[in-house]
Amino acid sequence: MLTACPKCQRLFPEDAGKFCPSDATHLLPADQVAIPEDSQDPLLGKTIASRYEIRRTIADGGMGRVYEARDTQQQQRVAVKILHQEIAQDAVNIERFKREATTSKELPHDFIVDVLDFAEEKPAPGRPDGAWYLVMEYLDGEELRTLLNNSKKLPLHRTVRILSQTSIALDSAHAKGFVHRDLKPDNIFLVHGPQGDTVKVLDFGSVKLTKGADRSQKLTVMGTTIGSPFYMSPEQAKGAADLDHRADIWALGAMLYEIIVGKVPFNAPNGPQILFKIIGEEPMPPSLASDDAPTELDEVVLKALSKKKENRFETCGQFADALGHALGLQGTHQEWAKLSESDIQNRLSAKTPAQPAPITTTQTNNTTNNTNNQPNPYPNNVPPDNYSPIKPTSPVIYLVVGAAVLLLVVIAVFALR
Fold first, then answer.
1. Using CA atoms, how far apart are residues 274 and 279, in angstroms rounded to an integer?
2. Most buried of the four, 65, 97, 183, 365, by CB within 10 Å?
3. More confident residue, 158 or 390
């Protein structure tokens, strides 16, 4: 049995208490709480598929609106995502919506949102032509995007746990041949709990299948934009046909950069300019972009953001391991994903970050005019955007300048005669 708040319409388990934690209103059995009608949204207060009672709006996006609903059969809270009416007129959008449902069902995982149902209700309240809906587990928490909008940066212990859990989810998807292609903070949901955040990866609607027939080809051919510009890998920005799981590793690197620096690695006024920078420019090392970003993470982040996918980590798990080890943690991301945030914080406080690997002969040879034999301060020889190497002045320059000055003096003497 569920209880509900008469004021905000939130649903709660029967043992959640007597008062709404949001507005302190006394909770009542859900069956006794009437849902007020809304002339702007005829779906509120109605029941979809004779099962899902729509109670309140919890999110409104470009593709659809997400509601909190009560599953009257299972007596549990669910989230119901319904495509906007105008979006549902496009066959490509419906295909993407279907893929989000079918892919998520093929990827049951603790760190991936659980999709429970998907269908079209025809007719639907206020929509005689029908409404496409997707039912998911209800999650208490917030998107990583919301958290970053409010906090800009996250503490390292929280970052390690988030990246570890996200990497486990993505490696599981990659092992089955699925490439997410639209990783971004908006699609990482954080369920808050006593041990810390628990990640739920959302929205597999842009997925590419790398094993067997690629069901995503249809969307690409029909011109749907796949991915968000800030987190698009160089090969994805170019529309490469051989896109693989390492595009997700690049996106994860871009998110880690934003988490520790407070801004994305590439920014511009519009999408095409962002993609131009991603393809043609190198990111500024995090420690130069932000005073409090640890220098130990420069090499890890820049490796994930390598232009060539062959130079990135092979798996998301390797990436997460490199993050923890650079900070001085022992073990692997599989272990860190299960630790509480406080345990990770204690381990970080007790450890000394690992020293960066010494520069190899190959790296030294690749360093531009490093005539003073100074160590290269930029991991992977990647300088920031505004970096300009200062080269020692050649003696020839002094001779040329001296001759020019002497010539000017001679000309001036003759001119004064």
1. 9
2. 183
3. 158
Model pLDDT for residues 45-81, shown as the tens digit of each residue:
999 999 999 999 999 888 899 999 999 999 999 999 9
pLDDT for the residue numbered 227: 65
- Find all residues with CB under 8 Å of 293, minimum gap 6, and list them: 260, 261, 286, 287
**Whether the Cβ atoms of residue 139 and residue 191 lie closer than 8 Å to each other:** yes
Catalytic positions: 182
Residue 253: name the closest of 332, 322, 325 by CA: 322
- How big is the chain by its Cα radius of gyration, in Å? 27
Q: How confident is the model at residue 212 (pLDDT cuts 50, 70, 90)?
A: low
The residue count for the chain? 417
Q: What is the C-alpha separation between 160 and 162, in angstroms, rounded?
A: 6
Q: What is the mean pLDDT of residues 104-114?
A: 90
Residue whose C-alpha is closest to residue 327's, from 151, 159, 154: 159
pTM above the 0.70 mark?
A: yes
CA dihedral 388, 252, 151, 62 (to 10 degrees): 110
Beta strands in 176-228 (DSSP E): 178-179, 188-193, 196-201, 208-209
Question: What local confidence, expressed as pLDDT, does residue 63 receive?
Answer: 87
228-282 pLDDT, tens digit per residue, is 899 999 999 999 989 999 999 999 999 999 999 999 999 999 999 999 999 999 9
Domains in the chain (CATH in brackets) are: 10-137 (3.30.200.20), 141-350 (1.10.510.10)
* φ and ψ at residue 108, rounded to 5 degrees: -65, 125
Beta carbons within 8 Å of 365's beta carbon, 6+ residues apart: none
The predicted structure's pLDDT at residue 373: 45
CA 251 to CA 260: how far, in whole Å? 15
**Quick one: which of 302, 289, 282 has its CA closest to 383?**
282
Burial code of 13-28, b = ≥16 C-beta within 10 A, e = fewer? eeeeeeebeeeeeebe
Nearest to 137 by CA among 44, 202, 193: 202
